[in-house]
Amino acid sequence: MQKIKVNLADRGYDIIIGSGILNQLGNFTIEAGLGKSIAVITNDVVAPLYLEAVKTSLRGAGLKVIAIVIPDGEKYKVFETAIDIYSKLLKAGIDRSHSIIALGGGVIGDLAGFVAATYLRGIAFVQVPTTLLAQVDASVGGKVGINLPQGKNMVGAFYQPKFVFIDVDVLSTLRKEVFIEGFSEVIKHGVIRSEKYFSLIENNVKKLLNFDRDLLIETVVGSIRIKADVVSRDERESSLRVILNYGHTIGHAIETLTGYTRFLHGEAVSVGMAAAGKAAVLKGLFSEKDLERQNNLLKSVGLQVNVKNVKEGEIIPLLQVDKKVKDGRVKFVLPERIGKVLVTDDVKIEILKRSLASIIG
Ligand code: NAD
Ligand code: GLY
Predict the structure, then answer these.
(1) Rounded CA separation 343/127 (Å)
(2) Which of 128, 138, 145, 313 is least surrounded, with the fewest CB atoms within 10 Å of its CB?
């Protein structure tokens, strides 16, 4: 079992990572002093797989448990679902001394975290991420939220969990494409912050895709170290944290444009990274060779670097509703080399059009 700390003074917390540790969740919850009653929020795909084990562990530690199971899917990461959950929490008598556990992928983590941040003006919560994407990225850093029809994650908060509990064994039940989409955030972490980490993935693609447990743990730990370091330096994205959005501005636009149905989040981010990489090449910041290296790694894990049946003219207006827009200018994270990026709002429309053209078709 490994422990990584997110250093945020009184909001700091541990991320616990291991294999076959789900049955210890109850003990950690007790140690964290999270109250007598726990509401586990999950969905109807994860519940049949892991809810019983989680309940048994929590009850075994002497806790009272209620479970709230919502339908699966990004389209349920909306206010209507949050309202439904608030009612169920009230009905079950969950008060401020109690806690929420988010058991699921990034959708559940974002939604349950949003509910925790707002219910009774905020109650404690724990992230138990069950997808690779949520383990390496979404569960860490306290961004919680819901989507609006106009765009992804448009309403939310920075609300840190009390701890994050990661058992990599749960990844074994993921659908193949869901496992693979997680690698987009893994590769993102390499491109933005660490060539060494990028090389680790590059040199072990086969083993990782074959579910080599030790390497998976090394991958999850490596990503979390990068993310925890960035978040510890800039919790509220006033500067450095923006780099975690590499590939996301265009990725989110593609998700919105395709109604959250054609692409998983990580799949859209992969295409977004290819477009941002191309924009960096066109601006003379990034070499063609490094762009090829990034795109080859994305492709070798099974991700795509282009998108069909979408027009650049449809993507561009959607970039304007991105949360990173400041005074009408879109902020882009662009790579300078593998392991280093910069943030700029100086991407001329011609460069944007040419980089989008490179990913379409
Ligand atoms: P997801 O939560 O929809 O999970 C993908 C699919 O896998 C779902 O069908 C889910 O039910 C299923 N699943 C989850 N765990 C499983 C398991 N162990 N076995 C079998 N099936 C399982 O999607 P995701 O990719 O995990 O997360 C995407 C979401 O995360 C997006 O909404 C995105 O905006 C958000 N996100 C948030 C942050 C953040 O910092 N808060 C960062 C990245 C992404
Ligand atoms: N996934 C972007 C962030 O956490 O800041």
Answers:
(1) 29
(2) 313
